Amino acid sequence: MDRREDRAFPLIFERSQKGRRGVRPPSVGDVDPEALFGRENVRESPPRLPEVDELSVVRHYTLLSRRQIGVDTSFYPLGSCTMKYNPRVLEAAAARFTALHPYQDPETAQGALELMYELAEYLKAITGMDEMTLQPAAGAHGELTGILVIRAYHEDRGEGDRRRVVLVPDSAHGSNPATASMAGFEVREVPSGPDGEVDTEALKRELGPHVAAIMLTNPNTLGLFEKRILELTEAAHQAGVQLYYDGANLNAIMGWVRPGDMGFDVVHLNLHKTFATPHGGGGPGSGPVGVKAHLAPYLPVPLVRKRGSAYVLDEDLPKSIGRVRSFYGNFGVLVRAYAYIRLLGLFGLKRAAALSVLNARYLKALLKAKGFRVPYDGPTMHEFVAQPPEGLRALDLAKALLDAGFHPPTIYFPLIVKEAMMIEPTETEAKETLERFAEALGEAARKGLANPGWLEGTPYTTPVRRLDEVRANRRPVLRWTPEAE
C-alpha cells in the first residue's frame, strides 16, 4: 500500500511542526527520573511524538472517527458476528459501576455480586444449563474453558488417555478445531450432508470410546437449524461423548429453544453478540460457560454463590480447572448483558430472535430476486450463505459495497461453499435498510456482469484502494517511521 494515495488525509505525524504545542506539561523540578523509575526504565532519547496544536489533534481524531464503518454509521451484516445496535441505556448502566475495584472486599461489593449471581441464573434459564461461570473473556475463551472442563471430566473418570478425539463439522467456526487442538485433542472433521446439516450417519460412524466431545453450532454456520439434533445427541451420549454447544448463533433461537433441552452438556455464550454489548473493535468481550450438573465440579473458580442474604465468591471446588481469567470476568460486559435481559424480558428476547430470522429471510429473498444463488436454501434462520451470480467473485462485490457505504458481509466462509457470502442482518435493522443493501449489491453485480473491469477496480472512493491483504495480515506495519514513506 502506498499511503500517499490519500494526501488529503495526512497522518498526525505529517501534521507535525517543530516547536508547535497544544499543551505543556508541568516541570518535574529536581526529580531524578533514574532514581524514581530505575535506570533500566528511562529512555536514552525522547520519543518521536508529533508536535501539533490542540485543534490539529481534534480534527485528526474527528476525521478518523468519520472514516470508520460500524453499526452506528452503517449496515454491518457480518455473518455469524451479530453486529447489531446496542441500546445506549446499557452504557449508562455499566457506568454506574465504574468506582468498583476488583481487589475490594466482596462484602463491600454486594450489589455487583448480586448482579453476577442473577445474570448467571438468567443465562442458565435461557440455555437450560445447571451451572454457569462468567469468567471467560470472549467466545473463543469460553470454548477453551468448556473443552477443558470436558477434558477434566474424562480424566476424573479415568478415560482421559483414551478419549483424545474431538469431532467438528466441516462447516464449523474456525475457532472450534483450534480450541480442541489447543486443549491437546486430535480433531476429526465430520462432513455436511446435501441439505447442509451434519451428516448424521457419518458422525455416528466416528463415535466410539476414543471420542471426548462433539462441537456443534445450532443453527449452523449456513444458517440452518440441525433438525436431527436429538438423534445426534442421543447417539453421542450412548457412546459416552460430551456435546459442546458453540453459542455464536444463539441470537436466532434465544427464548425459543434451549441447548440444554437439545442434549448439550456444555454451552458457551457470546454476550458481546447475543446480549447487546458492542462486538469487535478490540473491545472487551464475554464468553460465559454453562454446564450440566455432572460437569459443574470442574468449572473455573470462583463462582458467585448466595448464602443466606449475602453473596460470596466460592473457591471450594476441588476438581476445578482453576482460574481462566484474572478477577471475575469482564464485569462491564456482564452489566450490559444483565440490563439487556432485564430490559427485554422473555417476550422481548423471543421477539428479537424472531425478527432476526424474519430479516434474514426477507433479505435472502431480495438477493435471490437479483440473481444471487443460495446453495443450501432450506428454512434458514438468522443468517444465510449466498453466492454471487455466476462469473462474479465475492471479494469484488465486497469491495464494491464499500463505495456504496455498506460494510461487506463475511466472505469465503464457511469453506464448503465456493465464493461464499455469509450475511446476517440482525433484528435491529429496518426493512428499508435491507432493501437499500440488496439494491446496492444487486447493482454492483449488474454492473460487474456488464463490465468486469469496473468491478475488479472497486473500491474507488475509499482512502486506499485494494490492499495486499495477505501481506497486511502476515507482515503488518504497526509503527510509523519517516523512512516508510
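(the above was protein one; protein two follows)
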Amino acid sequence: MGSRQVARWELAGVTGPVVVIDVIRAFTTAAYAFGAGAEAIYLVGGVDEALEFKQRHAGVLAMGEDHGRRPQGFDFANSPVALSRADLRGRTLVQRTSAGTQGVVAASHATRLWAASLVCASATAAAVTAAGLGDPTYVITGCFPDAPDTSGDDDRMTAAHIEAIRLGHAPDARDVAAALLVTDEAIRTLALGDGHCHPLDIECAGRVDAFDFAMEVTRDDRGLRLAPSFPPFVSRP
C-alpha cells in the first residue's frame, strides 16, 4: 500500500507504525531537550493537564505552548533554542503543544509510535525500518480542520523527507532546510516574538539530522512517555 499522510482527526483506528510530525516546533524542541540531557518527556493534551502533572511529580519541568505562546506556569516556551541552553541532565519534563502532542494523544491505536522532526529524520527512518512493521502512517499535526489544504506544509515536507530516506533515497538536506524557513508556519511562529519564539528557533528546526536518535512514545504508569532511542543503521559519534 505504501506510506500515507493523515491529519490528526483521521487517526481513529489507525494501527501499525505511526510517525507523528511536528517540525515547528514541538518535536524539534523535544529533541533539543534530549540533547541537553533530559531523561524523558511526558506528552499531554491540555495546559491544565501539564500543570497538574508538574505539581504531582516533584522536579518535573513543563514546556510547550498554547496558540504558540508559553502558558503561565510553564518553565519553558516551545523553543528549541531555550531548551538547548538549559541544563536538563537527568530531568523529566512534561510537554503540551497545540499540534504535536495532540497528534500523539490521538494515535492511541498505533502499534509503534514515534515523534519526529527534521533534526532526527534519518534516525526516525532507521527506527521505522528496524521495527519491521511495514509502511508507516505519518501524522501531519500542523494541518488544521479550518484550513486543511493550506496548513501543515512544514510537516508535509518533513514527512516526505523522512520517507525518502526510509526508501533508500538521499534527499538534499539543504533544500528541505531552505524550504522550511519560508513556510507560512515559520513566518507566523517567528512573529510571536520574544518570550514565545527565539529568532533562531526556525533555523534550529532546519538542522537536518542534528541528532542521531529517534524519539519513541511508550506508555507507563505516568502516561505517554517520550524517550530517545538509537536504532541500528545510525552510527553514534
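Reviewer note on protein two: The chain has one domain: 4-229.
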